Each structure stands twice: as C-alpha cells, then as structure tokens.
Amino acid sequence: MIDVASSQPKKILEPSLIAEASLNMLSYLFYDAPKNLKIPKPSKFDKCLLLGYGSIGQAIAYALTHKGDLGMFAKDSVKISDIDLDKQKLAENDGFQLFDQWNSKDQFNYIIGCAGRCSFPISCLSLVRNNSYLISVSSAAIEFPFNEMIQYALLNNDIKINLSNTEINRLDDKNIHQNITFTIENNKSLTVVNGGMPITFLGILNPAIPEKFDITISLMIAASIQATFTKLENNQQNRIIPLDSNYSKFILDWFNNNKHNA
Questions:
Q1: pLDDT tens for residues 138-188?
Q2: Domain range list for the chain
Q3: 15-196 is a CATH 3.40.50.720 domain
C-alpha cells in the first residue's frame, strides 16, 4: 500500500485548493443557493467566530473582512479560535482578536469551523445568538456535534435542544444536503448548514474547476507506478510505504511551475 495522504504534494498543494473551493461554496450559499441551503447575509451588528486558523481559516478570515462578495464583516466583528500558539500569534499579527472560551461573554451569529476536528462541542451552545448558523468548511466530516444534537433533541434530555416535526422530516429526506434548524435554550434558533457536512460537499455544484484537482490523479498514478515496481518480502505485504520522494518532487515542481496556467 502506497501512502499518498501523507505525501508532500498533498500537504503542500491541497490546502490552497480546499480554501479556494470553500470560498466558492461560501459565496454560493450566501448568494445563489436554493432555500434549503441558503444562508442570510449578516447585518452590521452580527458577529462571526472562526474556529481554526490554518490555510483554510486564513483564507476565509481574509475574504470575510476585505472587499469582495464575501467582505461582509468588519475585522473587529470576527474572532479567531485556535489551540495552536503559532496560529494564535499569526491571527493577532493579521489584526484579529482571539476568542477565549473560558473568559468570554461573547455570542455569535455565524460560527465557521475550519479546524478539521470537532471544534464546537455541545457545551459551547451558549455561544450562539438567536438565528445563528454553524458552517463547516473543513475537509473533515465532523466539525460540529450534529448527530449528538439530534440524539438530544429526540430523547428529550436535560440539555434543551429541540427539533420541529418539519425538521425531523428533513432528516429522513433523500436529499441529505439541507440546512437543519434546532431550537435551543431560551428559544434560540440554531441552523446547522448542509446537515453538518463540509460545504465543499454540497452534491449540486463543483466547488472548483476539475483541473484544479489533477493533483489527486497525479498522486494516484504515481502510487500505481511505484506499487508496480515495488517488491516486498512475504512478511512485508501489509506494509504501508511512503510515496517515493522522486515522484513527490516531480509532482510538486510540475504544479508549482504550472499553477498560473490553471
């Protein structure tokens, strides 16, 4: 088995592709999406919490606070949360305020998850205002506790989370790409966009031109060639082998030299 997931081309080249796709989809949701996916544009009083300040988080933070179709927030209306100290320093250097979960009375209308992990547990529901939106732009599938919220709503536990019959029926719909709205404590409305799935997986639109993802095809071809010429002893048959450094360098060089033509 050849490991392409940990290869240098994937680590170096893919984040910018995902960031571009995420920005395209975020714009689509604000401007062009059908009713079951559309997100209202923020007012000047709304606040945004951005979870994660890696490549994707940085791109989104910039887009939300600069001129363009996503430039909807003043910089002081966006706060950044990241457990990495270097990312925290970078966010501050970029002019953003850091969010301190343990010493804050802030509440937000838009919470955007870019951390690649569950970055917003149920215990954080007190951070949302009425008519708020949870939006995952991560490449990982679990940024918010969507399934856990459903379980709490259906089982009528102590945590005040409810789903109307209309929203419960949406969960049974064949179209899984829908916004699901919960009612939480104090009758606040909280919408989980795209059923908690990353917005790059909407199922209805290509988030980036196909040519941008030639890197995936290139890596698979390189891995296939490497596997063909790799001979292992019988006791090594289940071994996972890194992608050959020569293939990695060739792919990196090619994409870096041709990225302006994409």
A1: 765 578 989 899 998 988 766 789 999 999 998 888 888 899 999 998 899
A2: 15-196, 210-261
A3: yes
